[in-house]
From TrEMBL:
<feature type="domain" description="WYL">
    <location>
        <begin position="143"/>
        <end position="210"/>
    </location>
</feature>
<dbReference type="Pfam" id="PF08279">
    <property type="entry name" value="HTH_11"/>
</dbReference>
<protein>
    <submittedName>
        <fullName>YafY family protein</fullName>
    </submittedName>
</protein>
<feature type="domain" description="WCX">
    <location>
        <begin position="242"/>
        <end position="313"/>
    </location>
</feature>
<dbReference type="InterPro" id="IPR026881">
    <property type="entry name" value="WYL_dom"/>
</dbReference>
<dbReference type="Pfam" id="PF25583">
    <property type="entry name" value="WCX"/>
</dbReference>
<feature type="domain" description="Helix-turn-helix type 11">
    <location>
        <begin position="6"/>
        <end position="60"/>
    </location>
</feature>
<dbReference type="InterPro" id="IPR057727">
    <property type="entry name" value="WCX_dom"/>
</dbReference>
<dbReference type="InterPro" id="IPR051534">
    <property type="entry name" value="CBASS_pafABC_assoc_protein"/>
</dbReference>
<dbReference type="InterPro" id="IPR036390">
    <property type="entry name" value="WH_DNA-bd_sf"/>
</dbReference>
<dbReference type="Pfam" id="PF13280">
    <property type="entry name" value="WYL"/>
</dbReference>
<dbReference type="InterPro" id="IPR013196">
    <property type="entry name" value="HTH_11"/>
</dbReference>
<dbReference type="InterPro" id="IPR036388">
    <property type="entry name" value="WH-like_DNA-bd_sf"/>
</dbReference>
Length: 322
């Protein structure tokens, strides 16, 4: 344990102690010599102005009248916390198409400075943390910030939205409820003031976003979850059915450990295959995910969903018959 971590650990021990802590205990917990314990106590008291009281015989603690209010100046993190911060720093800098990393660039600089101070200038092996964004979409940074600001400040939002399915462009006024990160992309869950219903909007399809002065309508959290999280994937609405999918014994080794839906039901079949049941509303996303497994997945029921999968496979096969 280096001195940085010892000081942090010493502070936490003294801050939580109800009675004086002996030097012997501090020596064991800090994994250092008796002389080092005294040097660290002196630095904590004289250098960082901590309210350390006590002596070598009775032990040390923080002054009961001041210890509860005292905190170490600046930002102090142990190695585990710094490692987590390093991973977060890499996630910010390498994901989100620049939206998050640009918005948080000042914070990222402070993180890098903190990491450098902790290692006395020795560079951290950033290349050991690998982040690979998958199928992220280009997004307007101004729109993203405006949407997030409206969600957090609880103000209504006006924007133009181009639906991906029809390419139709409409003007929307909504009461934003939540900003959702799903499969490396961002979505806005909102109450549509004109349609008087809950809707989800892909942020990368939003343009001309403008925060309004009017306060946003708050929808009950339970109602949001029932409408927006009741069915499979990002598509909203109450479930219209439950899909039963059977995966091959080979695919079962992956699917059995995957989370598809909060209300999914799965079981291993006697022959090694895996049966998965998930509620769904709009079938598009579920069909895409099932077809991703190719011949290792079969939709058993309902028959309507099975027929849609058969049609998609027939159309796909036609592309290879020319």
């Amino acid at each position: 344990m280096d001195r940085y971590e010892r000081i942090l650990s010493l502070h936490r021990i003294l801050k939580s102690a109800r009675y004086p802590v002996t030097v012997a205990r501090l020596r064991d917990e800090l994994e250092c010599s008796r002389a080092t314990v005294y040097r660290d106590l002196a630095f904590l008291r004289d250098g960082l102005m901590a309210p350390v009281v006590g002596d070598g015989e009775a032990g040390f603690r923080y002054d009961p009248d001041e210890g509860g209010r005292f905190e170490l100046p600046g930002l102090w993190l142990n190695s585990d916390e710094l490692y987590a911060l390093l991973a977060a720093q890499q996630l910010l800098s390498r994901s989100g198409g620049g939206v998050l990393s640009t918005a948080l660039a000042p914070l990222q600089g402070r993180i890098e400075k903190l990491l450098s101070e902790h290692t006395a200038g020795k560079p951290w092996p950033m290349e050991r943390v690998r982040v690979i964004p998958h199928r992220t979409r280009r997004m307007d940074e101004h729109a993203f910030r405006t949407v997030c600001s409206a969600v957090l400040s609880r103000r209504q939002l006006s924007f133009e939205y181009r639906a991906r399915s029809t390419d139709e462009k409409t003007r929307r006024k909504v009461s934003p409820q939540r900003i959702t990160h799903y499969r490396d992309n961002w979505y806005l869950d909102a109450w549509d003031e004109e349609k008087e219903a809950l809707r989800s909007f892909s942020v990368d399809r939003i343009s001309g976003a403008r925060q309004l002065d009017a306060a946003a309508r708050d929808v009950d959290e339970a109602q949001l979850d029932q409408h927006l999280a009741g069915s499979y994937g990002i598509f909203s609405g109450p479930p219209k059915g439950v899909a039963t999918i059977v995966f091959s014994a080979k695919a079962a080794r992956w699917v059995a450990d995957e989370h598809w839906h909060s209300q999914q039901q799965g079981r291993h079949l006697p022959d090694g295959r895996y049966e998965l049941k998930v509620p769904y509303s709009a079938p598009r996303e579920l069909l895409m995910d099932v077809l991703h497994y190719g011949s290792d997945a079969e939709i058993v029921e309902p028959e309507s969903l099975r027929a849609q999968a058969r049609t998609l496979l027939t159309l796909a096969l036609a592309n290879y018959e020319r």
